[in-house]
Amino acid sequence: MIREEPQSTRGKGRGTSVSPGSGFVLPAAIFLLVVLGGLAAWLMQLTTVTLAQEALELVGARAYQAAQAGLEAGIYAARTNGTCATQAIALTGALSGFTASVTCASYTADEAGTEFTLFEITSIACNQPTAGACPNPTPTLGEYAERRMRATVESGS
């Protein structure tokens, strides 16, 4: 015998029927949002670090070029004037903000009875000179860069 419920109580107080997978969507959505938020935060951190490294690389390349310019000025002075003088060069243009400190030491050499003068030229360039010269032992810039170059040349005179 089939028993039927009275029609007045059917559907009332019982709620709707629940399917077996209906409680899965909300936790999955929350998990997905947390994972994507973490990924976005990590990508922002990575971008910030990459940009800072690129800025330091650019400052380092400029310091290298400033040191090269100072070295060439020292070589020019030694080869054309035959003198060896210490100088500080404040650079302009793309290298503005950099100073190259050029030092020079001269000595004579004897090669098979022939004496000639050699100049050892050192150029130190930085973007935060102290008292107008490089290197700076206590820089305060976060992007402080310093490069050293050395060359030995024979007097042109």
Structure write-up:
- The chain is of the alpha+beta class and about 160 residues long.
- The protein is built from one helix and four strands.
- The chain has one domain.
- The longest helix is centred in the middle third of the chain and has 57 residues.
- It is rod-shaped and about 130 Å long.
Layout of secondary structure:
Blueprint: H1 25-81, E1 87-90, E2 99-111, E3 114-126, E4 146-154
Antiparallel strand pairs: 1-2, 2-3, 3-4
What composes the largest sheet?
4 strands, antiparallel
Basic shape: rod-shaped
Give the DSSP E fraction (strand runs of 2 or more residues).
Answer: 15-25%
Q: Report the end-to-end length measured between terminal Cα atoms.
A: 127 Å
Tell how many strands the DSSP assignment holds.
4
Structural class: alpha+beta
Q: Level of helix content? A: 25-40%
User: From N to C, what is the helix and strand string?
Assistant: HEEEE
Gyration radius from CA atoms, angstroms: 37 Å
pLDDT average, as an integer? Answer: 85
What is the count of distinct domains? 1
Spatial strand order of the main sheet = 1-2-3-4
Unreliable residue stretches = none
Number of helices: 1
